[in-house]
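Margin note: ligand = KG4.
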Amino acid sequence: MAHERLREPARSPGQLRDLDLPHAAQSAGERDWHDGRVVTPDRSDGPLVLGIETSCDETGVGIVRGHTLLADTVASSVEEHARFGGVVPEVASRAHLEAMVPTLERACETAGIRPGDVDAVAVTSGPGLAGALLVGVAAAKALALALGKPLYGVNHLAAHVAVDQLEHGALPDPCLALLVSGGHSSLLRIDDVTGHDDGVHLLGATIDDAAGEAFDKVARVLGLPFPGGPHVDRAAREGGSITIDFPRGLTGRRDLERHRFDFSFSGLKTAVARWVEARERSGEPVPVADVAASFQEAVCDVLVRKALDAATSNGIEDLLVGGGVAANSRLRAMATERATARGVRVRVPRPGLCTDNGAMVAALGVEMVARGRTPSSLDLPADSSQPVTTVLV
Ligand code: KG4
Ligand code: ZN
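Resulting structure:
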């Protein structure tokens, strides 16, 4: 939902073919669209894969050839959830159903391909909301069956890693991935992003709230709209000072013995809520931008500290930051600054590729095809709690 979106009157499909901006958008009914045509298709540059993403509130269809992004179309239902302060699964599933066919058509049009041109169809099989995942999986099965193309059911989290190839080329081997989204915060050693032969190895994860979840909950405490991450980021950037020393979870000596590469953000979230409540009780105004900046600093500090510790202690020289929270401006800057000081190279996809989209699924699908992985069967299930280490189902 952090994609750049413009509200414009609906255009005819004929006009859309002339789209030449890297990011353009159109409103279609109640839904917002984000589109990106990045370069002219190159027919000789690796497998052509269509990827479908429906794990949460974005209906994403991406089309990728090799490491080249041809289309990245996203229809989001985020505005339908905003008044509830969180994603409503039933509403998300219904929105995916309505958006699926138009999003597919539009992505093909943007990429200048016909569905039958693709070498494979990839889809997020999990983790995510069960009903939402099912819509994407059913659509991908129908497409693969009708076109007679291989189907790959892939892990959403590994796709957040693979998407960086569209921007920075082949992944370094090995690389340390800091994966931070609304549902997950993990440190992964990536030897093979397709997961083959323990290629995605979990070093640590959150023991309570995910980083994005903490951003969303703190935003709510501060009276900022849902989803909160981008709003906290903006409030902190536009006038916030780091004036409050909020706790850094699982960084004490004792905690590090058991949870060196794990995260905990629930104590931080509670500390922010208590701080704000105390202010309100005393009748003083809440300095929203300062609280946002101080909270954000605490989250980023722990994420970057642990990611660099994991990289250096595992002898890994490349750090990749992915997932929706990787769109955060402070996290991007801090990771780059501190990693450079430690001699670690950093890769972070551009913000529009960090939040959920179909291009990331297509990028992982390309790897599956290129590395000759066995396609999924047509009875592929949607798995709402698919482990991060199970990359291909
Ligand atoms: O990866 P993602 O789009 O969806 C999931 O897989 O969960 O991540 C969504 C999360 C939300 O919690 C959202 O608030 C957070 O990413 N997010 C951000 C920013 N943009 C999105 N958090 C902090 N700063 C941002 N700029
Ligand atoms: Zn995600």
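The pocket of KG4 (ligand 1) is lined by residues 2, 56, 181-183, 212, 215-216, 227-230, 233, 323-325, 327-328, 355-356 (CB under 6 Å).
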